[in-house]
Write the structure tokens for this entry.
Amino acid sequence: MKLNAVELRLRDARSQNSGFLAVALGAFTFAAMNCNGLAATQETTTPIWPTNGWQTSAPEAQGMASADLAGLVDFGTKHSFDSILVIRHGKIVTEAYYAPYDAGIPHTVNSVTKAVISTLTAIAWKDGLLDSPEHRVLDFFDAHQVANLDDRKTAVTIQNLLNMTSGFDWTEPLAGYPFSMVAMERSPDWVRYVLDRPMPNAPGDVFNYNSGNPHVLSAILTKLTGTTALDYAKTKLFGPLGIKDVYWRQDPQGNSSGGFGLYLEPRDMAKIGYLYLRDGVWEDQQLIPPAWIEQIEHATVDMHTSWEPGLYYSNSFWTLPDKHIYMAVGYHRQVIMVLPDLDIVVVTTGRGGYSFSQFVDLVTAAVKSNTKVASNSAGAKLLANKLLEVSTQKRTEVSSASSLSAAISGKVYQFPPNSLHIKSLSLYLADAWPHYALETYPSDTTASLKFTGPIGFDGYYQKGELVYYGLSDRLEGSPRVTAAKGTWQGENTLLIERLELGQGEPAERWTLMFFGDNLSLLAQFPAGQDILLQGQAGG
């Protein structure tokens, strides 16, 4: 079968992971021939710039232990990672993609978007477009149009937005439902929604996590630069770093979403971390003022997180001062972590959570020297086997096909309006390529969508193409790769497990029960919601 352009792109991207696995296997072979127990000396080299692609290295060549990194990869298995990258001295020493997620698939980075907006603000300041982070926010807007205007609101600065100390009334707990963020997203004007909020606190007094703050910053960047944050980033950040495949949602007015909505591949996330690790320099060009990074490293805003004591915040980055690390953090642990003392950047994407302190300890434990250490064949083999293990799908049990497969294949089951917005569902089970086709009703934020995806009936997820699901005229869509597998649970009940790869969410379970021309669809979601729909085959 001829591959289309998207399939070719994904195949080539997957070779990144296969290439690193080959490096790991090569390191094992080299270690088996070089177990003399002597540590070599690290050569003095100029900085490595991965603009056109990352170099890879055996961990021991960069002073890290393969066996410990194998444990780090295993940690990812236990905490629902989609990917992990470890970079030391400018080279990738470990890179894992957890099946069915794969290299080359854009991943939502969630609130890592905030750190990118912060970085663009730093660049605008360095370039003289912004005179000072202490500039008052309302100077960029018509204050006469802002509700609940008072002295507190007038005093809010860009630095307050960056530090989550604006004082706006906002409910978005780090360990709870983001009520205010959802309300903002449903509003016709996101910036106005934020600026109109009451001011229960004076700016600078209280840390209160608020995805509206960076969105106001995105709008200010547009005013300063005359273009969107996305286009400014393409010129000033993504372009110099060699980041080409980027997707970024926008609000109804066309502002790039400031608090979330950015999609990046893990290797490109690592480039942003590497820029910070190199003190804001990229190929001898100072992109970020060193003082900006210094402020992050010495964060003073206490986040008061009971679940992870010792976290501080500055310029939209999280820090653990006791461990001297800082990081951009997104929901479900989309993380760019910088360890300046050890010359390390770590990236994780995933569908769960983990303790930052525990994770940092695992990373630092893998560091044995600032120079090369002796090869270790057993450790190299352990890492190579672990990388192969996590990148390979585990087959689940399947049952024999139902006699209904041919009868229901191609039928269009239609549903009345419902909370899932599913308008119709068709299954093509008699085809050589079993797949589904789904159409949705329009909603407040999305237009009607039509999309399709394969279903694996061999115990493995089958992955579809990379597509962009468009939303309504006022909001852009997002890149998606779906994966699904199915098995019959009796003669008339079909279970389908469906993932949207790169969305940072666990699988959905759809139980389809067929009774003549009627279809009952029980949708079960990771958060525990169960929704039952009743459909009927159309004429």
